[in-house]
Design a protein that fits this description.
Bound molecules: adenosine-5-diphosphoribose, P-hydroxybenzoic acid
Shape: globular
Largest sheet: 8 strands, mixed
Radius of gyration: 21 Å
Helix content: 25-40%
Distance between the termini: 39 Å
Strand content: 25-35%
Number of helices: 11
Length: 390
């Protein structure tokens, strides 16, 4: 088999890259090691920056998002038992966010690709990349029992944090930056109308909590827990009790509903530099991870592949390599901004016993500043909706 761009991974990064290349008449093959069902059921975050939503539309995969996505113009910060609205759009030049699950973005991208034809193989095994320093890299894999080799001009490593592409780069060629957190998030999807119109990020002495949503009938809620927490110790009733305690304020109560899904995720910050080696380009979680506070992961993945697709188009249409050569540095400017923002939001909102009372009072001071100073709130708003020029 031969193609122009071999794409490893059918998450948002790989699928969107494939879509943008298809629009430009560039061939690609997408290889995914999980099943289609698994990829389409996996629950992930659900906040699209304005630029991400615009990209889905211009890529011709935004129809359902435009119908079902919910535009939000603000978020609420809660601390000391009070809520304070941050008017995102007023502060960030009219830009907004769209609530639309990453799972739905993935479904829409898969449906579009399967309808229009370019290869997308699920359930591939034993994926490995070779020859990335040569002009003719390849991807080896097995599918349906048979071993295959896909020869490519370029390989796009869109295979997430645990994928095989980043480790294919000689360790000496990469610099990695990493930070762990002593927190995890226990998330639930519940069949109940969201109890608030906008997202609530709640600072609480019991730990952080977040009220989010997926649709007018589906709530998405999170509580801070230990990263090694055992989900078996969290029956639904205990989760609701904790959500009430952390999100509740006078005159408001949280509505409960059947829990459809629950899970615990750890948190880390991670960046690889550069995001390219020879003819292998990394995009999305394969190159960087942010903690979920601020919902930047999907948005970064989409911003990466927008630049990668543009570089590949310049290369194929005009033999111009400058976009590809600048890819890593251009991505990393946005990545580091989001790394800082996500670390900052995480540090400000989570209960951190290692930081002591000093840390706690600093958090509250920062929250008060954000909710009383337009300058401070603007910093949050423009990062939250996504900076156009980073
Ligand atoms: N071969 C083929 N596919 C692989 C391999 C492999 N060896 N390893 C992993 N994959 C697949 C995964 O199954 C997954 O479908 O690569 C895909 C990577 O997708 P994501 O993890 O969704 O990463 P990305 O597309 O970069 O999107 C970033 O996803 O994890 C969230 O927080 C993250 O929201 C952000 C978004
Ligand atoms: C979500 O809805 O899943 C969500 C929202 C906001 C975040 C993180 C996750 O910061």
């Amino acid at each position: 088999m031969r193609t122009q761009v071999g794409i490893v991974g059918a998450g948002p990064a790989g699928l969107m890259l494939g879509r943008l290349l298809e629009q430009a008449g560039i061939e690609s093959v997408v290889l995914e090691n999980r099943s289609r069902d698994y990829v389409e059921q996996r629950i992930r975050a659900g906040v699209l920056e304005q630029g991400t939503a615009d990209m889905l539309v211009s890529a011709g995969v935004g129809d359902r998002m435009r119908r079902e996505g919910i535009v939000h113009h603000g978020i609420e910060l809660q601390y000391d038992g009070e809520r304070h609205r941050i008017p995102l759009s007023d502060l960030a030049g009219g830009r907004a966010i769209v609530i639309y699950g990453q799972t739905e973005v993935v479904k829409d991208l898969i449906a579009a690709r399967l309808a229009s034809g370019p290869p997308l193989l699920f359930d591939v095994d034993a994926v490995s990349v070779a020859g990335i320093e040569s002009q003719r890299p390849s991807i080896r894999f097995t599918h349906g029992g048979g071993a295959q080799t896909l020869d490519c001009d370029f390989v796009a490593g869109c295979d997430g944090f645990h994928g095989v592409c980043r480790p294919a780069i000689p360790a000496g060629a990469l610099r990695t930056f990493e930070r762990g957190y002593p927190f995890g998030w226990l998330g639930i999807l519940a069949a109940v109308a969201p109890s608030n119109d906008e997202l609530i990020y709640a600072h609480n002495e019991r730990g952080f909590a977040l009220l989010s949503l997926r649709s007018p009938e589906l709530s998405r809620l999170y509580i801070q827990c230990r990263p090694d927490e055992d989900i078996a110790e969290w029956p639904d009733a205990r989760i609701w009790e904790e959500l009430h305690a952390r999100l509740g304020i006078d005159g408001w109560s949280l509505a409960e509903g059947p829990v459809l899904e629950k899970g615990i995720t750890g948190m880390r910050s991670f960046v690889t530099e550069p995001m390219q080696y020879g003819r292998l380009f990394l995009a999305g979680d394969a190159a960087h991870i942010v903690p979920p506070t601020g919902a930047k992961g999907l948005n970064l993945a989409i911003a990466d592949v927008k630049l990668l697709a543009a570089g590949l188009v310049d290369y194929y249409e005009r033999g111009d390599r400058r976009g590809l050569e600048a890819y890593s540095a251009a991505c990393l400017r946005r990545v580091w901004r989001a790394e800082h923002f996500s670390w900052w939001m995480t540090s400000m909102l989570h209960r951190d016993d290692t930081a002591g009372d000093f840390g706690l009072v600093l958090q509250l001071s920062q929250l008060r500043y954000l909710t009383t100073s337009t300058a401070a709130a603007t910093t949050l708003a423009e990062n939250y909706v996504g900076l156009e020029t980073v």
